[in-house]
Amino acid sequence: MATSMALNEIAVSSASSVASKMSSKPAMKKFVGFHTVALSTKNASFPSVKCAAKVNMAVAVDVSRFENVSMAPPDPILGVSEAFKADTDATKLNLGVGAYRTEDLQPYVLKVVNKAEQLMLERGENKEYLPIEGLAAFNKATAELLLGADNPVIKNGQIATVQGLSGTGSLRLGAAFIARYFPGVKVLISSPTWGNHKNILSDAGVPWSEYRYFDPQTVGLDFKGMIEDIKAAPNGSVILLHGCAHNPTGIDPTPEQWEAIADVLEEKGHMPFFDVAYQGFASGSLDDDASSVRKFASRGFEMFVAQSYSKNLGLYAERIGAINVILPTADLAARVKSQLKRLARPMYSNPPVHGARIVANVVGDSVLFDEWRAEMQMMAGRIKGVRQKLYEALLSKDKSGKDWSFILKQIGMFSFTGLTKSQSDNMTDKWHVYMTKDGRISLAGLNLAKCDYLADAIIDSYYNVK
Amino acid sequence: MSTAAAPASSVPAGARSGWWEAVQPAARDPILGVTEAFLADSDPKKVNVGVGAYRNDEGKPVVLECVRKAEQIIAGKQNMEYLPMGGLVKFNDLSVKLAYGDTAPVLEEKRVAAVQTLSGTGACRLFADFQKRFKPDSRIYIPVPTWANHHNIWRDARVEAHTFRYYKPSTRGLDFEGLMEDLKKAPEGSFVLLHACAHNPTGVDPTADQWKEMSQLFKSNGLFPFFDMAYQGFASGDTVRDAQAIRIFMEDGHQLACAQSFAKNMGLYGQRVGCLSVVCDNSQQAVNVKSQLQQIARPMYSNPPLHGAQIVTTVLSDPELKEQWYKEVKVMADRIIGMREALKSNLEKLGSSLPWKHITEQIGMFCYSGLTEDQVDRLTKEFHIYMTRNGRISMAGVTTGNVEYLANAIHEVTK
């Protein structure tokens, strides 16, 4: 008799088999079907029972529906911090997740954030639901930060902005919209890219493929490969671009290269989807870091832009960001916004208020805004400083003539070292340096004091491990 | 395709044109759209009995004292680092203790997978996605009526949804025979959505005996109980009493799942704090299930927001604050019970010939008035009274100041 209680079903270990490629478990096939199955359990207390029309009462209650759910592999990025915490070695260094650290390697809450929270406490604001699209003051501020307050797109209302759950949630809303309204359209992502991009697109049901990006020979941009792959994609694809401070490589196109990329997108009728997670954090300047997005907007592109305030305002935990869609008319913007809301409602109903209020308070007060700019410059400056020191340490220790200048050319929190997986493993196993297995190090977790040690670890791993 | 004075076109000939043609303006959300309309109304007599957010007797939103104290305690103390994907561990522990009981055997045996979620919505969605991923051919059974967003959630999760009878219009009470009949027809391995207490939108809850009968049916027919508990403490004023349905099912050995929300009972609406828990065979399985729930959360929002979870954790882990919370939740529940009595007695005083005892028999924030859509529309147009078109009145929006006006208006449209 057909039963939907297919208890010998083998569970999928991960939504994205690409994300789980680092796992030691092979991705298992999901077994779907209707037929008589033998009810077997791994628990010795319950003998095998042949499944008939009605299952024995004791078994129905005592055997979980989810008994065959296997352990998911640890997240390749967030799992690194967990492993770091478990390490007891004194020399350990966490260059895993991209969260800013001070020179003392402590987490940093921006002073303007403390001030904004204090203001909020004193005002004693209520905790009512936000509208589905989020806090209006935040949405206005975030669009203006992105494009500039006097941008014609904003003046003409040609932008749909919906508060999202940081960058991840904003990307997910955009992806869900693409799945629903551009069914079959493919999104091209850079190779490599932030690992979660693939999960987001997969879970949203959006097909994706990759365009070449990182050139291991130069430890720089494979511009030729990138252009070729974007040209080869079917007309009207969506191209996911990092607005600044590419994650994980730290390699950004030059302004001329951005123009050329825009030319190809125009020629092919592609739509850009910008992921802007580091505005202000990369160079220290909010405007400079938004230049790629603004260039594309001024060239008349319709596009998606996901923003995050995790890094530039240090609001990692409060999940604050936005999905923006730039459109030809205000009417279209209203329609698109209404449909984004329809996607958000069955996900979380309305977004959390705390982070949104902090951003709105900081941006809305000119004194706080100036202080924020200064703190961003400080953070970006510290990272540039450790890049410089690391570069000098590598140069002084490695006399082979290898060009380590990519450390200085790359921008933002991350550096793609070019280390392979086994070399990265060596970094962790031998040197207690925690990083992701794609060779990415987070410079935000490095301080001047540890640059020498890190240089030693990199040189050892690069030269002595195959 | 737009023909307005757009900037230089990005859609050359031959390429995909008109990206946005298929995008129509979405209909207003039936619940949240009511508040939007209310806010736009300038009439001084307007009354909002639409969305389920508590108001005090002055019609003002309330932030609980225990919450304000908690916020002072945590101010400036924490860093802003990412929470784990499954949220604040201490929050999850306290949440499930609240739901299942401090000394529940399943907790002592570590058999519960629990993750912090974006309030009740996020908990339901995470579970719906989990159900789709691991039991892709299973069905969800949803009561009629239910909170409208339940259908959106399971539909977007692409789970096949069926319904079961719940509300009986003729009695304005529970259609228990219909419920049992419909659930008996559900195939083994089906999942059933149950409101743990204070059913939304009807306010009609099964009795303890009815819950027990349902529990037996679920056992014998292999049905999975999924509890949406959005009003624990808020319904009767007693958190233990409001969780009795869950405790009954637990005693019968069910391995259930529960979505908890702290939006109403702690007044943390905008902070989006909730918890999804799944009872498993054993502690290893609980670890597995939790890891898979995290796997679903990661591409949705990576990790949940911190602030609200910290507030709940502070309140529930401090004995004094917890005691204060119990008192404040009872005040809210009692005020609503008082307003139910006032509305009913006002309608009776006006000489309404219709039965109104359901107003006080129903429980929680909502009263399923039995008003038709036309009557609701008249209430809005003629009296500037806002409620959802299914006749659901949010009793939290009723005050001593507006209860007479409300009763009058209801009488006018129903006599």
Automatic annotation (TrEMBL), chain B:
Its cofactor is pyridoxal 5'-phosphate. The keyword Ribonucleoprotein does not apply. SUPFAM superfamilies: PLP-dependent transferases. It catalyses: L-aspartate + 2-oxoglutarate = oxaloacetate + L-glutamate. Its EC number is 2.6.1.1. One of its GO terms (cellular component) is mitochondrion. The keyword Transferase applies. Gene3D superfamilies: Aspartate Aminotransferase, domain 1, Type I PLP-dependent aspartate aminotransferase-like (Major domain). GO terms for biological process: amino acid metabolic process. Belongs to the class-I pyridoxal-phosphate-dependent aminotransferase family. NCBIfam families: PRK09257.1 (NF006719). Homodimer. This is Aspartate aminotransferase. It comes from Selaginella moellendorffii (Spikemoss).
